[in-house]
Amino acid sequence: MQPHRLTMLADPSLLRSACYVNGEWVGAASGKTFAIADPATLEQIAVNPEFNTKDTQNAITAASTALRTYRKTTPRERARWLRIWHGLMMANIDDLATIITAENGKPTADARTEVAYAAGFLEWFAEEAPRIYGDTIVPSNPNHRLMTLKEPVGVCALIAPWNFPAAMITRKAGPALAAGCTVVVKAPAEAPLTALALAELAHRAGIPKGVVNVITALDNTVEVGKLLTTSPSIRKVSFTGSTAVGRLLMAQSSSTLKKLSFELGGNAPFIVFDDADLDVALAGLLACKFRISGQTCVCANRIFVQRVIYDAFVDKVVGAVRQFRIGNGFEEDVTHGPLIHERAVRKVDEHVRDAVSKGAKCVFGGKILDGLGANFYETTVLTGMDMSMKLCEEETFGPVAPFFAFDTEEEVIEMANASEVGLAGYFFSKDSSRCWRVAEALDVGMVGVNTGALSDPAAPFGGVKQSGFGREGSKYGIDEFLITKMVMTGIA
């Protein structure tokens, strides 16, 4: 058997088997660890510490102590640290991409794209740090002077998901550090190695000890999460994950009334009107439906196509997905890798079986690819969908494209908005008036008009309804880590 690609990093010191607390690499006090497996091969590639609440409290204490001095650093100092961290990420892009592919499964080309995207948040917020402004306000009393100050909210708990193990950390840590906050990052149990590699680069960047702390846990995830959401020392929680877990964390955070940013589940509608450029719509769908094998919160979950072009567009999609090659993300011609674990595969298959049992037709795919490994599912296209199927109500998080036919704009808006979540939505049309109407009518936090790509450090990312609240990235992202202090001064 050939050695795993993870053993051939140009810089092996990026592969860490310890947590990063107060500027040092430490194990769990209990000595317990948990294993990390490559989702493509199921091969064990690393072990990481099984932190418990006592270990986590040490990280919280380190962040609290560091906050006393870090919050007093100048924005320019913080910007320099972030800029150096960005540069180190870009200098190590190949190794970081290898780590991502090893623990997440996405093809190496996608992993490289993620690293560049993730580093972009550090660069963006390095530029935002010196632009934290307060206001002077004319008060009602002429003998008073009124101003506002923007101050760091304090120690922040950042709870990150596995699907973008680099970008979902820098999108949170970048603005937190720019604002003058310190952080405790709970790395995703499925893919913690990327987070620890980023911690190593933060250390090399000279970021003061205790400012960035990265912890790992698997079996103790629930108790660690409860501590992060109930500790009085934590003043802010930023979480990306499912709506169900978000509800739980929000309830726990209410005990100390923390400031929260939650980016939760999605059920994105993707609408193709009869006046759309079908080639543009096809490119948009391939980008936002099948990226990372459909394991993104903003991927198209329900595809609505106007009836007159329905068959033609489905044929285009089937022709395109026939060209996909599913396999190990380290293989050069692979376009789509495995799902993250067997539970994900079972959920996808359940959704497909449910749709077919209720009248949908599987025109392509629809099978677990046992010959490749336990975590592979065939790219799937379903037609004849209706709103009674699980695919309409639940986030599939897999490579399944379900097609619905519609007749009128009013009808499809009603269908698109028939969801308890509202993260992203997409539509394609050449009619400029329709573009404005539909963009404003979709009950989501983000809209893609004639594009399937929404992610950009300059763009405010977040949803409405049960997709959460708060915005990440953009000029708005840093506000989530700041408080506004009012100062009223009396004059003689």
From TrEMBL:
The keyword Glycosyltransferase does not apply. Pathway: Amino-acid degradation; 4-aminobutanoate degradation. The active site is at E263. Its EC number is 1.2.1.16. Belongs to the aldehyde dehydrogenase family. GO terms for biological process: carboxylic acid biosynthetic process; gamma-aminobutyric acid catabolic process. This is Succinate-semialdehyde dehydrogenase. Keywords: Oxidoreductase. GO terms for molecular function: aldehyde dehydrogenase [NAD(P)+] activity; succinate-semialdehyde dehydrogenase (NAD+) activity; succinate-semialdehyde dehydrogenase (NADP+) activity. GO terms for cellular component: cytoplasm. PROSITE patterns: ALDEHYDE_DEHYDR_CYS (PS00070), ALDEHYDE_DEHYDR_GLU (PS00687). Pfam families: Aldedh. It comes from the Eukaryota. Residues 25-487 form the Aldehyde dehydrogenase domain. It catalyses: succinate semialdehyde + NAD(+) + H2O = succinate + NADH + 2 H(+); succinate semialdehyde + NADP(+) + H2O = succinate + NADPH + 2 H(+). It is an enzyme of class 1 (oxidoreductase).
